[in-house]
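Got a spare moment? Tell me how you read both lines of this record:
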Amino acid sequence: MNFMNLNATFWGQVLFILALVVIFFTIKFAKGKADNIGLVAIYAVLLNFLIPPVGWFYCYRWANK
C-alpha cells in the first residue's frame, strides 16, 4: 500500500458515512429526552458536517443525558 497516494474522494465518503451514522445515533439518543427533536436533528447535521468532532461530542452528550 502506497501511503503517498491519498485518495481524497475515498476519505470524503468515509467522513460522510460517519457523519450520517453519528446523526442517526444522536437523534436516537435524544428521543424521549428532548422537547424538540427537529432542532436536535438540525444541530446534529450542522455540527457533523461543519465541525465533526463537536458533532461527536454532541452525540455523546445526548447518549449520557
In short: The chain has a mean pLDDT of 91.
